[in-house]
Amino acid sequence: MGLLPFSEQDSPTNSQAGHGPRTNSDIPVSPASDSPTRRRGRRSLAVLALLGGILLLAALGCDADAPQSTFGVNGPVAREQLLLFNVLLWTMVAVFVLVEGALLYAAVRFRRKPGDPLPPQTHGHTPLEIAWTIIPTILILGLGIWSVIVLFELDPAYAEECQAGADNKPLVVEAVGHQWWWEFRYEDADREGKLVTTANEMRVPVDTCIVMELKSDDVIHSFWIPKLAGKQDVVPTRTNTLWFLAEDPGMYYGQCAEFCGTAHAQMRFRVHALEEDEYLAWVAGFGAPNQLSTAAGRGQLVFLGDGQCVTCHTVGASDAVNEVGEGVQHGRMQTYIAYSTWLQKPAAERLADVRTGNEPPTAFAAPNLTDLGLRTTIGSGLVDLNRETLRQWLRNPDAIKPGNRMSELAAIYQTRLDHRADLSEDQLSDLVEYLLEQK
Known about the structure:
The strands form three sheets. A five-stranded mixed sheet has the order 3-2-1-5-8. Strands 4-10-9-6-7 form a five-stranded mixed sheet. The chain has two domains: 69-91 and 128-286, Immunoglobulin-like, CATH 2.60.40; 294-436, Orthogonal Bundle (Cytochrome Bc1 Complex, Chain D, domain 2). By secondary structure, it is of the alpha+beta class. The chain is elongated and about 95 Å long. The model is unreliable at 1-19 (pLDDT under 50). Strand 1 (171-178) and strand 2 form a beta hairpin. It has helices at 12-19, 36-61, 76-109, 126-153, 157-162, 276-285, 294-304, 328-343, 347-356, 387-395, 405-409, 425-436; strands spanning 171-178, 181-186, 196-199, 201-205, 210-216, 221-225, 229-234, 240-244, 250-256, 268-274, 377-378, 383-384.
């Protein structure tokens, strides 16, 4: 059998004889950082850091003071939903801890050691099996029955009982989802038959049950006010409902919670809960004639003329609704659908329609601006409303809200390659003054 060659100085005999015994420093070892113990330590630290990060994120998500936290609730609906969530969550946590604790205890306490004989084989423990079947059944039935009771209490029909004994009936507000903003229509805002239509900022009186009738003019949306009520889908061709009650005055954030297109993330709204007299003052002043300043008067001419804003927006009145529930906005939406269909025709056919005057109008559903001067935001809650932000919005809406319909379809944004408003700086200034004086 052959041997591998080695040099004389590398021979084991010479190594032992000529160099003496090898010291620890002569023995090759792996660096300390590569030792199994160190590697296990690093993995443990990484796991602990990951768990710490998860716990930190969970703690931040549970901040009751966060603007859209579901833990800082206001009103009976949100409070009942939070109670149900907490009971279900902590019941599941308790069950998990008990079951996993028993499993770990059994795995450690009764683990088989080297040399142990096989344990005696049995066919189960009848009382224990009965117990772990009956207890979860009772637990699930109890939670299920309670959940059903809560669902009945969250039904808008319950709002009548909630409001029983109060001077006023529940206030009904219709919320219509559009791409990408919210329209709010009050058929009986003052409980004397006054119609009010506003957008993106809803005003309601405190300690009053609000029944929301949810509709969509285009795609599926979802209506959500985290601190006042849970989510409810907004589906075309049908009306869904929910109710809530705000116990304290203040401003509450809401948004669309269902992906609905390009600007879905920018489809926000706000709910202002006002004292009863403050709310009634807002309703009484809605649509009342304004004494315009000189600049605002010029801005009105821009609104009606060069700006062509009046094609899609309403100022100074509520958008009327006919006996079958179809109103100005619905008609505008139908016009937009017809125009979108027309755009799909071949270019030659569209050119022929333009030459013969058969081009469809370009109106589409847009926010009612009657109370714009009282709102706090613009662009569906994206930026605070002031002269500068309103000017930026009018000049180039895409800079604030990419994907918005206004810059896509409004005529004044179609004559320039950069889709900026085809208005002079003076016209923009006058238009800003006119809109801000709408109160």
